[in-house]
Amino acid sequence: MVFQIAEDYCQQVVRQFDAHQPMPVEAADRRGVRVGHGVLEGVDNQIDPATGTLKCRASLIAKAIN
After folding, report:
1. pLDDT for position 66
2. Among candidate residues 52, 43, 48, the one with its CA nearest the CA of residue 6
3. What is the pLDDT of residue 63?
4. Strand, coil or helix: what is 29?
5. Do the beta carbons of residue 20 and residue 35 sit within 8 Å?
6. Residues 40/55, Cβ–Cβ less than 8 Å
7. Between the N and C ends of the chain, which has fewer C-beta atoms within 10 Å?
């Protein structure tokens, strides 16, 4: 999964990622219902100046649908 975080959080996320600390990630649908969880796998090396966000990548395990 690819997602973006606001530049306000970039320094903290990159610092933890570079220190090889596992960072949990949760995915939710538009209603806020949790649809998966996983860990951060990568971060881009630049903040997008147009949006003020940093692109991140995570591997997820999808929640089973009942």
Report:
1. 59
2. 52
3. 77
4. coil
5. no
6. no
7. C
Quickly state the pLDDT bin for 7 (edges 50, 70, 90).
very high
Does the pLDDT of residue 65 top 80, yes or no?
A: no
CB atoms within 10 A of CB 58: 19
Structure tokens at 54: 């940093």
Tens of pLDDT, residues 18-58: 999 999 999 999 999 999 999 999 999 999 999 999 999 99
- Distances from the Cα of 40 to the Cαs of 49, 50, 65, 66, in angstroms? 22, 23, 23, 26
Q: Among residues of the chain, what percentage have pLDDT more than 70?
A: 95
Q: Where are the beta strands (DSSP E) in 1-66?
A: 2-6, 24-28, 34-48, 53-62
Strand 24-28 relative to strand 2-6: parallel, antiparallel, unpaired? unpaired
